[in-house]
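Journal club prep — side note

Before the paper discussion, L.F. wants everyone to see what a predicted structure for a comparable chain looks like in token form. Sequence:
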Amino acid sequence: MDYECFCIYGFGVDYPTDWQVMIEPRIRRVKGTVTFRSAEGMEIGVSWGPLKEAKGRFSSADEHAKDTLDRIKKSRGINNFRILEHMSDRIDEHIAVFNHARADLAGGGFFGGGAGKQTEILSMHLHCDRSERYFVLYGRTTAERTYEYADIFNHMRNSFNCHTAELKKRMEY
């Protein structure tokens, strides 16, 4: 699969070249969401916001990630929620928290439709003091597409940069 770099407001991530980029209309440097979507409907999003807000609620990216998973677990339409993988790694000088979870869909609720189907949820949470923002890379797919989707998600996760200097080095030809 071929990838290219998407850069905006001092951060960047590689995404598959044949995916559509959807930018939230009210995006700002301090807060926003960008979604990458395949022709088959798979989506991976990047959301960011003021680190000050996140630090007001969470002591770390790990606590931020756990809160997000707890909210998903308690969502209407989610049954049998379980975390399959939880790990920390280094992304662009930061400790990033990666989670892979699975849930059965009961229909309706946050994830809508799909009663009786399983969904796979992937996420990465990162707090960046230098840019004064938090970042969350996230997505979901069906159990049947997990391996393909996880490869794409992991490529995007490992390519993530939240510092302008590192992005400029990557963009030099």
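L.F.'s comment for the group: The chain has four helices and nine strands. Keep this in mind when we get to the figures.
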